[in-house]
Amino acid sequence: MAVVSERKLPFGKIEPNTSRYFYSCALGGIVACGPTHTAITPLDLVKCRRQVDPSIYSSNMSAWRSIFAKEGIRGVFFGWAPTFVGYSFQGAGKYGFYEYFKYLYGDQMFPSTNRTLVHLGASASAEFLADIALCPFEAIKVRMQTSLPPYAHTLREGWSKAVAKEGLGGLYKGLYPLWARQIPYTMTKFATFEETVSMIYRTLGRPKESFNGLQQTGVSFLGGYIAGIFCAIVSHPADVMVSKLNADRQAGESAMKAVSRIYGNIGFPGLWNGLTTRIIMLGTLTGFQWLIYDSFKVFLGLPTTGGH
């Protein structure tokens, strides 16, 4: 990309599809995911509580007013620490492994395969691994946010309490539902993004390389926001179930038995509690994640994602 090759790159030239390139993409995932997920903690807090108990607040605004009046700004951002740590780890795996698997599947193993299938396979493989790192922190976050009084007040307290009571395995009891939520979400996020970005450049009638870095990252934001809307719809029922499982799974109860019991209580309509909030949250979140991730790649002298 001419606009970045003409300036001095901060860490020298990074060759595509090398270990250094994949590590750089993983670092970009941390920068993109950790801060953005943390920034929307107030939305996530209210969403999780309303998923578990739809009657707890009449609206998002009333929820924030109530929480702020009782606990101040700290209460509004309650659960930020496990969110930041967990989604930083997840971001590293999601983006770093996606770039690796996209190269492995698309260029090495199945070079003649449809690119959308490559994007779907690469994103599913990446998320499978990324969720293993995310799961214990997600479990602590949900328990902290959905229990009143809180299960724990800090990440350290929550971790110690959970491990002492259930062992490390207790923090992974939501892994299958997390995979059920996150893998379709990420497949939708990456495949829709890649296709949307390509469509935008086709609509503009010029090749991607003819636009400068700022313009390309603007396309990344728009493509990411559109992808986020689809992600919210596809993954929302599983998201509700993850919140319910972490808040209401009984001792010794199997995952399938718990899912069956909870579904019996809330029914199909209950799986869609908080969808509007999640669409707003994920559209904004996904748009800014792609903006930050591709801006980081431009900073390093790498091409932005998609549009090839």
TrEMBL record:
Q: Which UniProt keywords apply?
A: Membrane, Mitochondrion, Mitochondrion inner membrane, Repeat, Transmembrane, Transmembrane helix, Transport
Primary location recorded for the protein, binned into one broad class? mitochondrion
Q: Where are the Solcar repeats?
A: 20-104, 114-199, 215-299
- Tell me the superkingdom of the source: Eukaryota
| GO-annotated molecular function | phosphate transmembrane transporter activity
GO terms of biological process kind = copper ion transmembrane transport; mitochondrial phosphate ion transmembrane transport
- InterPro entries registered for this protein in UniProt: MCP_dom_sf, MCP_transmembrane, SLC25A3/Pic2/Mir1-like
Q: Name one Pfam family in it.
A: Mito_carr
Q: How does the protein's chain sit in the membrane according to the entry?
A: Multi-pass membrane protein
Please give an example of a GO cellular component term from this record.
mitochondrial inner membrane
List the subcellular locations.
Answer: Mitochondrion inner membrane
Which family would the database say this protein is a member of? Belongs to the mitochondrial carrier (TC 2.A.29) family.
What exactly does this protein do?
A: Transport of phosphate groups from the cytosol to the mitochondrial matrix.
Q: PANTHER family, per this entry?
A: PHOSPHATE TRANSPORTER PIC2, PUTATIVE (AFU_ORTHOLOGUE AFUA_2G12080)-RELATED, SOLUTE CARRIER FAMILY 25 (MITOCHONDRIAL CARRIER PHOSPHATE CARRIER), MEMBER 3, LIKE-RELATED-RELATED
Protein name (record):
Mitochondrial thiamine pyrophosphate carrier 1
**What species is this protein from?**
Penicilliopsis zonata CBS 506.65
